[in-house]
Structures are given as structure tokens and as C-alpha cells.
User: Fold PmbA protein from Novosphingobium fluoreni.
Amino acid sequence: MLSPEQATDRAADLVARARKAGADAADAVYSASASEGIQVRLGKLEDVERSEGEHMGLRVFIGQRSASIGSSDLSTAALDELAERAVAMAQSAPEDRFAGLAPQELLTHAPFLDFDLHDPADPGPAALRAAAEEAEDAARSVAGVTNSDGASASAGFSVFALATSHGFAGGYRGSSHSISASVVAGEGAEKQRDGNWRHTRHRADLPSAAQIGALAGERAVARLRPGKLRSGPMPVVFDPRVSSGIVGHLISAMSGNAIARRSSFLLDKRDAQLFDPAIRIFEDPHTLRGTRSRPFDGEGLPTRGRTLVEDGRITGWLMDSASARQLGEVPTGHAARGGGGAPSVSVGNVHLAAGSLSFEELIADIAEGVLVTELIGQGVNGVTGDYSRGASGFRIVNGAIAGPVAEFTVAGNLLAMFARITPANDLEWHRPINAPSLRIEGMTVAGD
Assistant:
């Protein structure tokens, strides 16, 4: 795998080839990854997976026409052909007055901040297998667990680089480590499945494999013999396992691309009181070892921490350069790049601030409600904000958890849901988007 410096040179070389082929402007991204994973089931090795790959993406501009193309063949001849094909495609593309590279005066430059995203230690297959076995053993040792879907451990490394024809060049490396376990509890028609999974940049930041596995087993056993919920309006509490999805829907709706296309339920809501004034949502792409940390965005603009929701109001849209031009604003450093194509919008290390109530205090006055621990399906309309998801979890009766429930639906509208959110103080910090338990009043539950 190339070093970040070598990857940056490779991206800059492709930009030079595009200019030579006739592009007025261009940018190129280089991405490479290598990963190894071990899966065990019932104490036996089930799968060993090793993958490596390199990819380059090229975007060229001819006037206000543009085209994007990518390739995993990085030979000299292939890159020359890539540049020539991209220019030919751009010459035939329709004009787009919002297309173009990021404003040159806004670019960031080396040296870039180091967020300790790369763990150089490679655990190797023996250590990965031992971790997977330990996680599964811990899960299977929980009373009531009767079978296993398996456990896995993996480690991976990546390099990303970006170069543009107007003065940006930079790259960085990262690593990833994960352990997961999934087990079955109960017998016959009473079986229930659940699991646990953790992912970090550094292996030392993972909980022990035994902790991960034990929680997987406990979750599966807790779901045994689920009951049914009655239908009707009631308070719904979203567990931290799923509450981050509520914040994710907000972020998607804040995308400048969605606003520019007028396909967001937040249209005309920029200055509206969406949440209780106590609700705050923050983004910090500079978190040390953060899973979504990065020193620059996919267009070479600096990333920075910012408040996304303050005093219950959103603070603005999340924009790449094209959507910013369309909206008459300034890009916000949220562009993300994959292997090819135009930038999309992405955030880094977001959290909804914890409230002052413990989980027990959050549910203490609920006479009848439900704690949701799993959501099923994709029933969210990003244009209207209508929300309807299949779910499972636990009944709340007279302020206490009263047993598992399954096969019900929770529904509402995201704007109404935002206005009724009350957060607990049990914020967890290991996901790309983090949120505590969230209580939302008056949702519609469709159960028995």
C-alpha cells in the first residue's frame, strides 16, 4: 500500500495527465484499503477473508461541462486512457453553471493536523481468531443461549489522497479494528437472535472480546418470549443503539444537495424552532481517533468542529461547493468522495448532547410506553418527514421495563418528533453518530 505522500503524488500525476488531455481543471482521488477478517462459529473456523484494493477517481471540467470516471487499473497506459476518456465525456456533457472545483481561496494546505487515525499494529490472523473465539465463547456461556450465528474479528488499513489542478494536494492514512458476535437464544418457535459489535481506529480502544460477546448473549436472552403491544399513541423511548438514526435523518435533510433540489423536509425551516431550546447537536471531525475524523474534506477544504443545532434551531446547511453555489452560500467543508463521481455530503463524529435525566428518571412517569432497541425497514420519507418503522424492544409499564415485545410499528413525522425529544444522560461515544436514549412523546404505535 502506498504511503500518503506517494498516494498524493499519484493523484497529482493523474491531474496532470487530465490537463495534458485537454481539461481546463481537474481533481483526482486515490483510495486504497487492505483488510483481514476471521469468522468462527460454534468454536470452529468458518471463514478467513483477506482483501486489498486500489482505486483512482478523476473528475474533469471543460468550461462548465464536467465528467467523472474511475479505475482500479493504475498502470501508466490505463491512466492515460482514463484521462482521455474523461475529457471526451466532459466535451459531450451538458453545461452546469454550478459545476467546478472548490473556491481556491478557501483551500487548506499542509501540514495537516494529525488525529491519530492510524494504528500501525497488525494483529495478524492468530490474534484475530483468538478474539473471535473469545467473543463467541462469552456469548454462548450466557444462560439461555442455544446456538450461534458466529463471531468475527477484523483489522484494516486505508490511505486516501486528493489532488486538484488549482493547488491542493494532501493525503492521510487510517486503520480500523472490529469485533462482533451474534447468537440465538431459546428453542423451537421461541428462538430469538441478537448481537453486539464494536469498531474503533485503534485495537487498544476496543472493549474486550469477552465483554462484547457477553452483551450479545444477554441481549438475545432478554428478547425471549416477546409479547404484543396495543395500538395507539404512547411515549416511545429510543435506545442508544437506534437513537442515532433520528439524528441521521436530520443530517440528511440538512444536506445542501437536498435543499437545492427542494427534496428535504427542512425546506423553509432554517430559522424555525425545531427542538426544545435545551437540545444541542455537535460535530467534531477533529476528534482524536474518531471513526469519522479527517483533516480536509473531499474537495480540499478544511474541516472544523461546529454546532449543528443550537438552542433548538439548525445553524445552517451542510454544503459541498456545487450546492453552495446553487444556494448562493459558502461551502462548509462537508464534501465526501468515494471512488468516483461528484462529491456527496458527509459529517464527522456527531453527537446529540446528553440530558440531565438518568434512564430510570426518563421513563419514571410513563404509565404505558415502549423502549425500542431494534428498527426494521426504511420507512422514512426525506421529502415530507413521514416516519414509519418496524420495531422490537421492551414494554414500559408504570415507569419500569416490563418484558420484551416484537412485531410492532412506530410512526410519526420527524418535525413533530424533533419537537418532543427529551434526552437521557446515557450518551455513548463509539459510533459515527452518537445519541443518548431519546424519549419522544405521542408517537403512534401499531401493535396487536
